[in-house]
Amino acid sequence: MKRFSIVRHWKIFFTITVLFLLIGYGSMIFRGFNMGIDFTGGSIMDLEFAKPVQVSQVRDVLDKHDLGNAVIQLESSDANVKEARGVLIRTAVISDDNRKAVMNDMQSALGGYQIRRVENVGATIGGELVQQAVIAILLSWVLMILYITIRFQFKFAIAAIIALMIDVSNTLSCFSLLQLEIDSSFVAALLTVVGYSINGTIVIFDRIRENLKVHRRSETVTDMIDNSIWSTMTRTCYTTITSLFAVIAIFLFGGATIHNFSFAMLAGFVSGAYTSILLAGPLWLFLQGKHAGD
């Protein structure tokens, strides 16, 4: 049975990629991002309840005031604790009247409490730290280019970095299109996506490099790339599926505070598998100055 030629159908995959990127960049330009309180600042309510409360109980109250994305932390030395008396709540900036309404509802629903601290705070991630995160990603790309160039060749490195840029853009596009909140955990997720995506691409490029050494004249370069991709397909699929199982479990059961973090991982991992399997090989072929079918 003849296998489906990924390289010969490159126009389909490139068209899908370009369309999604155009939609994503359009959204980023005209809609922007929903920046979380880590970037914009917010309000802190540090409360000590008379009786232990659960995160879900506090969040139910906040949901009534459209503050469901608030960060809620129970104060306890036990990381697995389900309830506690001390609760730290971080929300977007709210007015004094809204804060009073929230705290009154807290008392009605959860019982009496003492106020330990109530204040508005500035952003924990300023422009300087955002700039450092961008520099960290760019530096990782430079180091990857150096490593792949030494280990393989420069054109492999360029193809891999283009695929990574697409993965980062796709993840950003999803958050812009869906207007999901971007907080400090998103930066960590983005760096994780970069590391995960390059791994899948390197596996395929390593097989292409091995096959180049034993490449037969009767076999076109296109067929050689297709064979390399398909020979690593089982490993790539197993790695992707097992990783997605863990990420989906975190997304479904990890709680609201890490919901956006897990979604960023989910979007990035799917994009990483897509670019590694369907785009990286054809990109390298075109950088070699060849066409599909050569």
Task: Write the topology of this structure.
Elements: H1 10-30, E1 34-35, H2 37-40, E2 42-54, H3 55-63, E3 71-74, E4 83-91, H4 96-110, E5 113-121, H5 127-151, H6 154-178, E6 181-182, H7 184-213, H8 221-231, H9 233-253, H10 259-287
Parallel strand pairs: 1-6
Antiparallel strand pairs: 2-4, 2-5, 3-4
Helix pairs in contact: 1-6, 3-4, 5-6, 6-7, 6-10, 7-8, 7-10, 8-10, 9-10
What do you see in this structure?
With 294 residues, the chain is an alpha+beta fold. The protein folds into 2 domains: 188 residues, Multidrug efflux transporter AcrB transmembrane domain (Multidrug efflux transporter AcrB transmembrane fold), CATH 1.20.1640.10; 80 residues, 2-Layer Sandwich (Alpha-Beta Plaits), CATH 3.30.70.3400. 65% of the residues lie in helices and 13% in strands. It has 10 helices and 6 strands. The strands form 2 sheets. Strands 3-4-2-5 form a 4-stranded antiparallel sheet. Strands 1-6 form a two-stranded parallel sheet. Helix 1 crosses helix 6, helix 5 runs antiparallel to helix 6 and helix 7 packs parallel to helix 10. The longest helix is centred in the C-terminal third of the chain and has 30 residues. The chain starts with 9 loop residues before the first helix and ends in a 7-residue tail after the last helix.
